[in-house]
Structure formats: C-alpha cells, structure tokens
Specification:
This protein is of the alpha/beta class and 221 residues long. It has a single domain, classed as Ribonuclease Z/Hydroxyacylglutathione hydrolase-like (Metallo-beta-lactamase, Chain A). It contains 6 helices and 11 strands. The strands form 3 sheets. The protein has a 5-stranded mixed sheet, with no helix packed on it. α1 links the parallel β2 and β3. It starts with 13 loop residues before the first strand and ends in a 5-residue tail after the last helix.
Length: 221
C-alpha cells in the first residue's frame, strides 16, 4: 500500500499475513504522519493495518474482526531513512520484533540514527525502537523458530544499511529504494519521471555493484 504523508513522499509499505500463526510481517512503516486531506482523523500504522487489512482478510469461520491482542508483529526495515521508519512507533509499542541489516551496524546505532535517518534534516524525532535482530547477507528469516520463506540480501548503495528481501513462497523480490521505475504514475494521477536518488551517505560504486548482484546472482530456492 502507498501511504500518503504530509511531505507527499508516498512511501510503500508491504504487509504479509500468516493467519495460521496470527503473524503479520510489515516491511517498512512510512513517515508516520499522513496528509490532513486524506481523512478527518489520522491513524497510527498498527490501527490502520488492523482496521483495513486484517479485518478484511480474517477467516470467516472465526470472526470479521481480528483479536489485536493475539496478533504477533514483525517489522523489516529495509533501511533507516525517516520515510521508512517513522511509522514504526505503534508497532514497537505492541512488542513487534524489528529486523535491520547487520551491514554497517554503526550507521544505524542510536547515536547516529537521528542524522543518518534524515530525521534531523526533516525536523522529526527518531522513533523510540530497538532492533531485535540484525540480519546477515543471504540469511533466511525465522521468527519464533518458524521459517518465514524470506531471504534477506544486503544491497548497500542507496544507504549503507539498505537491504532487499526475496519471498520464496510468492517468488517476489522486493528491492526497496535500490531500484524503482524511471517513470511512474503518482497517486494523484500525474505521470512523471522519477530519478533514483542516492543520499549523502550513499555510495554510487556500491550501488552499481549491487545492481549486478541483483541481476546475476541466484537466490536460494
């Protein structure tokens, strides 16, 4: 889903549900503040997912509503930029496990995250969250001893901590801000060119190298 925010950045947030274990995997969490013209009352991301996604996909034999107290949350942060982590607070408060890249862990430690996340530049506070797992390149993600069929790939370039993930069950590769369409349709209907940006902490050579890796490497199946 695309989450409209006050800066009109429209970050994408991906949600994968595992109804047999009531596990919800959230990939990136947006900016945390929606545009006031979207609706009369902003919702935090956890409540939005429960009301608009989980309730709709709940098993008919159980209930039309999901018991939020029984929902287990796991968040994958593809990188630390504010438009990917600033919606994390409600999930962190609910006890979500939080996964980030083990590549250059110093880049995202609390001492440096305020600047490196661009929260300082955008006038935001860094959300109060703790990384529970630092994932290594090629690692198969597990949660509570369950294999989630998700393989993480380090993709430094856009930022040192950027990572993509491959969903083996669905056969989708999610590449985050490493690659996106050169021309895209904006949520308001405009077609426009979209340049791929590297932040001040980015690395052009690393980005070029990881593109080759994404295109030529074989993901474990």
């Amino acid at each position: 889903m695309a989450h409209q925010d006050e800066d009109q950045k429209y970050p994408f947030i991906y949600v994968k549900t595992h109804h047999d274990s009531q596990l919800v995997v959230v990939i990136d969490t947006g900016c945390g503040v929606i545009s006031p013209d979207v609706g009369p009352k902003p919702q935090d991301l956890k409540n939005f997912i429960e009301a608009n996604l989980l309730a709709v996909t709940a098993e008919p034999a159980t209930s039309s509503r999901v018991d939020s107290a029984g929902t287990d949350w796991l968040v994958i942060c593809t990188h630390c930029h504010f438009d990917h982590i600033c919606g994390i607070q409600s999930l962190a408060d609910a006890g979500a496990g939080i996964i980030a890249s083990a590549c250059d862990r110093d880049f995202i430690n609390p001492e440096h995250c305020y600047v490196n996340s661009l929260c300082a530049a955008s006038g935001r506070l860094t959300p109060d969250h703790q990384i529970s797992q630092f994932a290594t390149d090629g690692e198969m993600i597990q949660h509570r001893d369950r294999d989630l069929d998700l393989q993480l790939l380090h993709t430094p370039g856009h930022t040192p901590d950027s990572m993509a993930f491959y969903d083996l069950a669905e056969r989708w590769l999610f590449v985050d801000d490493t690659v996106y369409e050169c021309e895209g349709a904006m949520p308001w209907g405009e077609e426009k060119m979209v340049s791929i940006l590297l932040s001040a902490q980015g690395d052009w050579l690393a980005w070029c190298a990881i593109l080759d890796t994404i295109l030529t490497s074989t993901v474990t199946v």
